[in-house]
Amino acid sequence: MDRLERCVADVQSFLHTHWQQGPALLRPADPPTEVLSAADIDGLIDGGLLRVPYAALYSAAGPIPEERYCPPRLVAGRILDGCLDPVRVRSLIREENATLQLRYVNHWHAPVRALTAGIGERLGRLAEAFVFQSHAGHPSAVHRDDGDVLVIQLSGTKRWQVYGGPADPHWQPVPDADPGPVLLDTDVRPGEVLYVPDGFAHAACATGPEPSLHLTVVLREARVRHLRDELGARLAADLALPARPLDDDQLTTAAAALLDHFRARLAGTTPESLVGAARRAAHSSRPTA
To answer: Are 201 and 136 in contact, with CB atoms under 8 Å apart?
Structure first.
């Protein structure tokens, strides 16, 4: 099963026409909407095992403080913080139109893990998954995400506006007050997939009476820090030197061995291999907005 094909239909056409070039609304014949349903979300909320930071609630004013929906819980004589209380969560959703965000779902939900792993393997990227359940009237701020994004609409409808990519290589994945002209303005319906290239600004708002539920698969792009980290890991691998040389000769010998080790490691490293390895390990410190 080609999981990327289930999201984009014709993989070669997608890579040639849309990938890292511009936003697109895709209508695959067999979208992976079965990986998570509204009923599954209800079960997760009621099950009582959801915890911060894997889950969070947002209102129009921003993040809702977790103490409002995560009362301390006594487990085996220990106080456990950060557990979502189903009654409080449903109250905030009902009374304050809160949006539920589930983070890094690929860590803890097997069908989503299989989907993201397949997509990431096909594209040579680290793939992470986020789920959003929201009601009409709660638009997101215009922002840029840290990676290419595939938005799989599972149920309900959401309207998206996608703007252009960043012009400055020092851009940050934060709200953008001046994103430029809209490139794509569309409703995304169940079974449809929206592609947003890395860093392209966008905003979304649920429409209609039914809550919107979508799964966002983020394909992380390597940054300079990932290249630096990967290179450092390669240079340090299999390096065994004495921690405290006893005299000048031993210290000089250790320095020579260190240089020889680095030269050998660098000789076998190409820019392409370094980029590929960095992309497969490009974790972000910021959850997708």
So the answer is: no
- Residue located via tokens 């938005």: 151
Instruction: Say if residues 218 and 180 touch (Cβ distance below 8 Å).
Output: no
The 8-class DSSP code of residue 231 comes to H
**Which residues touch 37 (CB under 8 Å, ≥6 apart)?**
154, 155, 213
**Residues 16-42: pLDDT tens digits?**
999 999 999 999 999 999 999 999 999
Give yes or no for residue 201 having a pLDDT over 70.
yes
* Cβ atoms within 10 Å, residue 231: 16
Q: Is residue 156 part of a domain?
A: yes
Mean pLDDT of the chain: 94
- State the amino acid at position 31 in one-letter form: P
Are 150 and 258 in the same domain? no
User: Residue 186: how many CB atoms within 10 A of its CB?
Assistant: 15
pTM here is 0.91
Residue 214 is assigned to a structural domain of this protein = yes
